[in-house]
């Protein structure tokens, strides 16, 4: 039986979307209170009774959140055009080797807008 475990992280960042259509409001500098959900999937370990140690997820995310929090995302290599789609791919590329069983990354840029990514090609 497979289980999914999700842990949430938050950070505040500024950004511009340089490839947005001319006149689009997101081409101007703006900021978001981002929420990132990291989901891993696996079997319950009969010894511990859990799928994954939450501390391992936090340890993998800590340097990334530290890098992004109160930063201008466009200055971070790989996030020169920081759409939530490209951010999800960026997180996946950074985390997939550290978090076996990584199943999904969801990035919320507002309470009503989010992107879910389930892996694929690394950037």
Question: Can you put this structure into words, describing what you see?
Answer:
The chain is built from 2 helices and 5 strands. The chain has helices spanning 54-68, 84-95, and strands at 3-15, 30-42, 71-72, 102-110, 113-117. The radius of gyration is 15 Å and the shape is elongated. 22% of the residues lie in helices and 34% in strands. The chain has 123 residues and is of the alpha+beta class. The N and C termini lie far apart (32 Å). A 5-stranded mixed β-sheet has the order 3-1-2-4-5. The model has no long low-confidence stretch (mean pLDDT 95).
Q: How would you summarize this macromolecular structure in one to three sentences?
A:
The chain is an alpha+beta fold and 123 residues long.
Q: Keywords for this structure?
A:
five-stranded mixed β-sheet, alpha+beta, 123 residues, single chain, elongated, Tetrahydropterin Synthase, Chain A
Break the fold down into its secondary structure elements and pairings.
Elements: E1 3-15, E2 30-42, H1 54-68, E3 71-72, H2 84-95, E4 102-110, E5 113-117
For the record, the CATH class is Alpha Beta
Q: What is the alpha-carbon Rg in Å? A: 15 Å
Structural class: alpha+beta
Per CATH, what is the topology?
Tetrahydropterin Synthase, Chain A
> Which blocks of ≥5 consecutive residues have pLDDT under 50?
none
Beta-strand residue fraction: 25-35%
- Principal-axes geometry comes out as elongated
Strand order of the largest sheet: 3-1-2-4-5
| CATH level-four homologous superfamily name | 6-pyruvoyl tetrahydropterin synthase/QueD
Distance between the termini: 32 Å
